[in-house]
Structure formats: structure tokens, C-alpha cells
Amino acid sequence: QEKSSRLSAALFGEDCEISHDQLFELLKYAALGKCHNATQPSWCHISHQSHLAGVVLIVLHEMSQLHFYKFYLQFKHLRRVFRHRFTLTPSTNFLASLYGEGANLKPQNTAQGLNFTTSDGLPKSSDLQSDPIIRKYGGKKRGLTSYTLTLEEQKKNDYPIKGSPGCKGYVYTECDQQRTDSSPLFGLDCEMCLTAKGNEVTRVSLVDAQGQCLLNELVKPETTVVNYRTRFSGITKKMLLPVKTRLPDIQNKLKKLLPCDAVLVGHSLNADLQALEMIHPSVIDTSLLFARNEGRRFKLKFLAKAVLGKEIQCEQKIGHDPAEDARAALELAQFFIEQGPAKVAELNLEMRLTTEKRAEISQNKAALQPQGCGVQKQLNEPPHLSKPCFLDCLQVTGRKPLLLGRQELESSGLCQSNLSTSNKQILQRALEDVPLSTFSIIQFNLGPEYIASLPLAGLFEKVRSKLTDMLTIYAGPFEEGFCLKSVKKEFGRCGPIQSLAVVTETYQPYVCIQYEVLEAAQLAVESLDGTEVAGSCVKVQRPVTAAVLDCDVLIKELELDVENEDVIYVAGLKKSLTEMDLQEEFSQLKDLETLFLPKDLQSGKHKNCCFLKFQNPQSAVNALEVINGWTTKGSKLRSRNALASGHLWRWIWQVNHSNLKQGGNILHEKIEQLSDSEQDLRKKVKKLDHHIKKLYRSLQNNTLCIVLFPGSNSMHGSQSGLGLMAIKDDRGRSAC
């Protein structure tokens, strides 16, 4: 039985704020694993990383933690699926930090594969020695056997190996004859569709050393096709309907066509052999042959144009032609063998790629600029070479990361983007392309018109106002001359009080109490309404404002939130109790996993409440029955389901102690603007949540999915980001 990857994280209480470096640490390990020297992140743990089907990062552009809680009810899918959440330190430009923009190297840093060039564009001979191709193969010509992958190289690059546990049932080509420099070369390429089983071969092409096509056949997959990936594979449902050929038929044909000393050539050939479920001992992989620094790889399309002068995989065609790709890979290997490493190094492929990217970026920006407003840049300037960034590190997987979105993405030079692209179009592309990539970044956006109508200060003030109302309760009426100390003591047993004031405008006095945590206010309403306090039978209620009309719905949804379902809130603790005392006190509770004792983030003093996290929701329910009415150290405890146990507790505290720069009149005006467009915004956010739900459900099992609200850090104030993460299991839920 296939192992499932699991995700665990100690994101509870005060340990839930994550820096960008820590996030990149997770992404790098999830995508590359230990085999590429990536290390298990320090703040969370992925078990069975090698079984991850892929990593998908969904970035909600220009949105922060503030947006998530403003539109909490609309983000129904996010709060019901993504159990692990963390606060992300705010950034001026999250995508820039991800792509490594601004971290530029000077051209003389040849350790990164960046070479000086002569006036004719060729690298100086002194710099050829630092070229990765020369470092790997030397400068002299060699026979083809010098370029076949060793057994260790095949293992490192995920080639099917004879006798390997993961290759049971694979067919061996039985080409065991000793290879010589005269052994025949054969180009191989396959196209795959996504099926219920995973990636299955639907077309296979084999060409000989003269470029003659020996095999070019469609293959009927074993299981139902989930996604034909027509844009890449060229395969349609109609094409496969009459096909009778199955994988075993193709395996037998390949065995008959290949002589005993055959050398197979392909670009990232490991993926083709894995899909064919075949093992062949002697291969040349052109994605590794044309070596680059940092384990990065050139795309076949780029190499065909730069080395052979051929255009392949043209956008006008529907899907790739496997015979064309197989022939291109074969000719690239023949060129390398015939010309030798020195001639290939003189092509200065790294510089050509950088120049090509620069030209593409300039064209994109020029197309977006109004006529007459842009500054013309010369393409013959030395290219702007950047330090290998986070995404460069990921390219050691042999597959270019998939980047889909609107603005800002084109600045990386790695993706296809269009400012006019809608979220729906991005979703459709993602549904097609994400299964083809081991690492994907999908950027959704509310749109510039909605961002403009959503002033950060106005939004912040509305959220803070609503939170304040939800944290506030009114109790009364009391008799004249009542004991305020008794009231404070009784209501203080529900949780930490931020402020308490007597309301005297009424016929009889009332008390207004603002708590520091949502659970305390809700506990006061639930447990003290209709009881006798300070000699009076009191009514306990929240203020009646437009903002809290949906309070009951919000409280219910917070209780159902997957982050809270296995956590309970306990109040009435003596402040003298330490965390160790409480660990001992609650040790008898079954399946208790973690205890969080909140502290004042300024003074560091403990509060009179705590959160208990259990291994499962049922244990939390059982603990509630035990704790209610429990007395510890002479103090009677009160408890209920948690509402804001993790990062939300910290964020509420920050909201109540923060200010954004904004003038009073301007702020009032922008709040009014926000009210006018809020209905449209709710619909837009609800649709965004639905897009994420649809994308998440389409992911293969064992895919790590992270949704990021990047946050902001600007002259108008700083707003923390929010991350939500889960590994999809076979029920479309999260594996934790």
C-alpha cells in the first residue's frame, strides 16, 4: 500500500508567526527533499516527503490576514479544509522575495555560470574553464559512452532501476550487450494524460540515428482519463476512442525494435521510462548533458533553437509532437558528441537564455505601457544577471516551476502572464497545467478595481470595530451602590478583561466589559445571562449594532473551523499557576497534545485562561464535560469550545493595540466607500474561495497545497500575512 505524506506543525499560540525564510525552508524541502540537500523545516514536519505528488502555492495578491477575517464567512472552503495556519511576517513585495528580484550579481561572478564575453558574443577562453559543461566533461571530444548516465546518476535522477523496490512489474528491455562508441542511438519521447492512476502514456515515438520514425503510436490508458492535457499532449478524447493498443503492446514493440546495444536518448527521459514502466540500462539525458550550475536545466525548446536553430513546440500547434521532440533530443546528443564540450561551451547558452528572457520581459513591459510613456531600453546592453533565487533552486527537479497569474509575475522572466487574465482563466489554465508540474505557483487577484475600492485603513477600522463589539458585553441592571469589585471578579472568571466601565446614562446602572479574547465574551453571555451577580439578576448581552447582527453565525462557524475543532478554552485559572503546574493539573485528560498559556505581548505576564489542544475532536468534547465545574487550587474553572486558539488570538491582540496612518475625515469617507461596494466584494471573495476549492479538488492525492495572503508593508501601515496549508488525501481533505 502506498504511503501517504503527512504534515504536522506546532502552530499553536505564540509559535505561529513564520518568517519568509522559514516558509522558503518548507517549500524547498517539500519540492526537493533530502536527496537534494534540502533539510526538514524546523517549525513543521513532513513525513514521507518522497511520496509527495507535488507542491502548489496559491498566492492571493495584495491580501492579508485582515482580508481573511473580514470575509471569514465567505472563505468557507479555506476554513473547513486547511487545518494548519500561520501568521506570515509582512513584506513589501512577497513575490519579489520569492523570485529573488533585486539580489543581483555582478557579471564577474563566474561561480554562478556567468561569463565575460568577447565583442562577438563568445566567452573568453579563460572563462571556458569555469563553464559547467567543461567542468563536467573537460574540453576534449569523447565518444558517446562518456555521456551515458552512470548507475548512480540514474538513481539520483529518478530513473527506473532493475531490482529497485519501486520498479516491481516494470519491463526490462534486455539490452545487455556492452556499449561502444559505435552503439546505435535512438530518440524516445512520450506524451501523457492524467488518469485515475496518475500519469499514463497515451502516445509513444521512437526515432533512429538518421531521424527516421520507427514508432509513433497512440496508447489506450489503463484507467479513466481525468485530464487529457490537450494543450501539451495534443491528445483528445476523440483520438483515443478507436485505439486498441495498450501499454504491454507498446512495451513488446519497443523491446523488438531496440538492438542489444541500443542507447536511448531523451530530454528528462526518466519521466518517459517511468510512464512506460520500462527499464533500460544505457541512456543519454540531454537535460543533464547540457549542464548548468545549481542543478538547473535548459528546456528542450530552448536548446533546439539555440543549438540546432530549429523551432519546436510551436504555439500554433495543438500539443507537442513526440516524434519532433524525440528527434530534437537525438540531434542535440549527436551535436554534443560530434562537436565536443568546448564547442558547446562556446555557444554560451547561459548568456543566450538570459538575453532571451530580458528581451521577452522588455517586450511584455513595452506592450503594457501607454504609448509615449515608456523609457526605451537597448537590447544590446549587458544583460541584467540575477543571483540564483528560490525558484532556481527548485529547478534541480528537472522541471520548470509553473507560474500562473497576473501582474508582477512577468518580472521573474519565468512565466506566461497577462494583465487582462481573469481569475477564471487562471483557474482553467491551472486545472490543465498543475498536474504536469511538481511545483506550481498560482496567483489570484481581486482585481485592481476592487483593491482600489478596498482602502486598507478603512477595512482595518471596520474589522477592528466589529471585533471590539464582539469582545464587548453589557451586564445589568444593577442596584444603586452595587459592588463593582464583585462584578469584576465574577466576570473575570470568564477570561481576561481589557476594560470595565459603569454606564450611568440608563435608569439603572449597567456595566460595559470588554474582554481580550472572544471565548471570554461568549462564555460570559452563555453562563452569566440570567444569573445573580452582585445581588442583582442581570441580563448579559452584546451591544446591538449592525456589525454584530451576524455574530451568532460567526461564532458557530468559528467553532466548526478545522483549526478549532480539537481545541478547548479554559478560564478561571489563578495567575500564579505556571505552565508546568497546568501540565500536571490537566495530565489526566485523555489525548491532550498541547497546552497554550497566553501572555500579555507587552508585559509578558500570564493571563487567567489557557487553550488545550487534543489529538482529535472527540477527546476535546470529552474534556469539556470533565472540566466544567472543575476546581483547581481553589478556583472554579469554566470552559467552552475554542474560537480563536491559534494565530487568531495573537492577531486580535495586535488589532486592538494597532493604528494605521490615516486622517480622520479621509478615514470616515473611505469607510463609507467601503460600505457601498461591500456586497460586490463579498460575491467576489466567495467566487475566489470557490476557485480555490475547485483547484484543490483537482489536485492529485499527496499534494502539498499552501494558500498565502502575503500581507503588506507600506507607508500606510503594516498588515501581517496569513498562510494556510494541507496535504490532500484521497477524500479531498487534508492529511495532517
TrEMBL record:
It holds the Pfam family RRM_1. This is REXO5 exonuclease. It comes from the Eukaryota. Transmembrane segments: none annotated. PANTHER family: RNA EXONUCLEASE 5 (PTHR12801:SF82), RNA EXONUCLEASE REXO1 / RECO3 FAMILY MEMBER-RELATED (PTHR12801). Residues 471-545, 566-644 form the RRM domain. GO terms for cellular component: nucleus. One of its GO terms (molecular function) is exonuclease activity. The gene is Rexo5. Keywords: Exonuclease, Hydrolase, Nuclease, RNA-binding.
